[in-house]
Amino acid sequence: MKIILPLIVNLVIISPFYLVEADKNKCTDECLTKTYCLSNDGSTQCSKNNLVTAQFGVLKKSSSTEMLHLTLTGYNIEATKDHTVRLSFRKNSAKTIFTCYKSPLGATKASVFQGSTEYGSGSSYYQQDLLTCSWIFSRSDPIWPAYYNNPVDLISDKSFALQLDYDTLNGTVAQDTSELPIYRMKFLKCCNHVYGTDNYLLIINQTDQTDFYAQVMDVKPSIMTIALTNVDKTVLAFKCYFKIPLIQGYIQNGTKSTTINDQLFDTYIYNSRCSWSIHSYLNASSTHSSLDISKGTFNLQINSDDHLVYSEENISLRSSSPSLSSVSMNLIILIIIKLLSI
Predict the structure, then answer these.
(1) Would you say 85 and 100 are in contact if contact means Cβ atoms under 8 Å apart?
(2) 16 and 124 assigned to the same domain
(3) From its phi and psi, is residue 314 left (phi > 0), alpha (psi between -120 and 50) or beta?
(4) Residue 133 within any structural domain of the chain
(5) Treating both helix axes as pointing N-terminal to C-terminal, what angle do 5-12 and 326-341 enclose, rounded to 10 degrees?
(6) What is d(CA 154, CA 160) in angstroms, rounded to the nearest whole number?
(7) Are strands 94-102 and 108-114 parallel, antiparallel or unpaired?
(8) Share of the chain above pLDDT 70, in %
(9) 230 and 115 share a domain?
């Protein structure tokens, strides 16, 4: 069995912000993962006759990095024969193939082929007629699906077909990757309350601090503005300047405005996403006032280049789930147990 230890270390530092429970009925394995199947009759419907399955999940390592977790499992694997199961991303002649192999002597191997280049990567194990391989990888890793050596943006690009193989039997299990949980960041909607539209996504989580995560898809605004107005008409606003790149914050009280850039921390902005954190108690030094955002409700507006794209009234920033939600710790523990048990 081969385990890449740095991957387990990466699991431990997953930020709980992305695992906050917003809807207990949605924060389930069915929402967070997608499983593809190939049966012995060539059917791609998941059933008790599965010969091979591929399950995808997404791990959020940080504001800037998503990691795919792929588990490939072959069934009815005979002990004295060699067997190979595969999952491949295919577009035209470009292919990224995740391969799980067992020799007649029981030795196993997990590997990934990018074109003609093979990468020995992942963990593999054979036990009780089951052959299992698992990979955890980010877009910066060489095994990430690629189109002629260019990593694919699986958040917005769904153009790859997926194929499963069991020895010589194969079948296309998906014409595109639109059902992957990473596509359009669907996995974030499982365990978080999401504001915005299909193209503008915003998550706000408040525990002992307040974390903001904004993602833009299919459009490329120069500036995205998030404004929160309380009952006193005090405005807390943030601007993401994607082209500079820069994140700025300010508090506006009537005609007076105070920058709070020095009160922003853990800031990140790149390409089409930005994230930042603030403490729940903010000081507006120029107006000798303060703002406690842990109390009351706010009217939310999202603007794209000065055009209103989303609004919602009377939102509370306080998360309904406990600080450092048990959902985050449970998910980390379940993933580690799953890795150690294969």
Answers:
(1) yes
(2) yes
(3) left
(4) yes
(5) 170
(6) 9
(7) antiparallel
(8) 84
(9) no
180 and 285 assigned to the same domain: no
Cα–Cα distances (Å) from 211 to 4, 154, 207, in that order, read 31, 25, 8
Same domain, 17 and 74: yes
Please report the DSSP string for 255-272 in residue order: TEEEE-GGGEEEEEEETT
When pLDDT is cut at 50, 70 and 90, the band that residue 62 belongs to is low
146-147/150-151 β-pairing = antiparallel
**Is 263:256 a contact under the CB 8 Å cutoff?**
no
Average pLDDT over residues 178-204: 94
Q: What is the 3-state secondary structure (H, E, C) of 206-232?
A: ECCCEEEEEEECCCCCCEEEEEEECCC
Which two three-digit tokens encode residue 43? 């059917």
26 and 66, same structural domain?
yes
For residue 332, the model assigns a pLDDT of 46
Domain count, the chain: 2
pTM more than 0.85: no
Residues 140 and 226 in one domain: no
Tokens of 206: 């408040």
| Amino acid residing at 304 | S
DSSP letter at 261?
G
Identify whether residues 179 and 46 lie together within a single domain.
yes
Same domain, 238 and 150: no
